[in-house]
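Good morning N.,

You mentioned wanting to compare the apo and holo forms, so I went ahead and generated the holo version with S-adenosylmethionine. This is what I fed in:
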Amino acid sequence: MSIMSFPERGPWGDAKWRGNCSGHVYKQLFGQLLRDIADPVFIDPMMGSGTSIEVAREMNIRAYGLDLHQGFNILRDSILEKTGEPGNLVLSHPPYHSMIAYSGEQWGTEAHQDDLSRCADDEDFHRKMQLALLNQREATIPGGYYGCIIGDWRRNGVYTSYQAEIIARMPATELAGVLIKAQHNAQSSFKSYGKMKLPFITHEYILLFSRKRATVLAVLGAIASQAQARLQGTWRNVVRSVLMQLGGKAPLSAIYEKVSTSTDKIESNSTWREKVRQTLQIYPDFCPVEKGVWALA
Ligand SMILES: C[S@@+](CC[C@H](N)C(=O)[O-])C[C@H]1O[C@@H](n2cnc3c(N)ncnc32)[C@H](O)[C@@H]1O
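and this is what came out, ligand included:
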C-alpha cells in the first residue's frame, strides 16, 4: 500500500514531542523494507523523542538514534562516522522548515543555528535538506534505503512542496518510492484560514531512495544533468509557447518581444536573446522559413 493512515500513534516515543510521528508508520516500513534482511540496521539521524528507535528495538532491529538535541548535527557530522556501520534503512523525520521550532522551544533554551527548523528561508531549507540526505546516503549500505518523512506547507497563500523540492535535488535514478501518510491532528489543520477555498493539508510524504553503488561524484553529475535538462527543457517550452501565441510563425524580433514581456526573470539575464536563438536552432520543434523568421516545425 502506498497510502498509510494511523490515527493512533501507539506507545512509542513521546506524544508531547511536537511534530512526532506515529510509531505504526515505522512498524509498517520496517516490516516491508527490512523483513528479508538478516540482522538489519536502522538509523534515524533526527530521532526527536525516539519513536522510530523504540519501534525498531521492539522488533529486534539494531537501531541508532541521533539528534541535534543530543549533540549530533546532520549538517556538520558524518552519520556513518557516528554509527560506525552503515544502515539498511536510514530514515529521517526533519522539521518542516519552521512550521514547528525545535531548538529553544521543544528542547534547549536557545535557537541553534543549524537547527533545520531555524532556516533563513525556503531556499536555505531546500539546500540543507539536500545535504542531510547526502549524509544519509553515505550512511546507507548499497542496495539499502534512505529517505525522509516530510510534509508540505502553505503560508501567505503560497504552497511550498518540500517533498517535490527534495526529489528534484536527489538522483532520479535512486528514487524508489513515494508514500502518502495521512496526518492526524496536525495543529495547522485547525487554524482559521478565513474563507480559504483550498483544502487544509492533511497528508505527509515518505520519500524513499535506494542507494546505488555510484560514487558521490557520479551522484553529483546525475543531479547536475537533471537540473541542466530541466533548464534546457524550460527554454524549449518557453520559446515554443511564445511561437504558439504568435500563430506558429514569427520574425525573431517578435519572438524576442514576446519572450521579454512574458517572463519577468529573463529581463535580468543579458544573454537571453542568444539563448532564444540557440533554442530555435537546436531543437527540431522549430524551423527557419525565411531569413529571420521562425515557425513551429
Ligand atoms: C519532526 S522532529 C522528529 C520527531 C520524531 N520522529 C518523533 O516521533 O519524535 C525533527 C527533529 O529534527 C531535529 N533536528 C533539527 N535540525 C537538526 C540537525 N541539524 N541535525 C540533527 N537533528 C536535527 C530536531 O531537534 C527534532 O528533534
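The mean pLDDT is 93.

Happy to go through it together on a call whenever suits you.

Best,
F.
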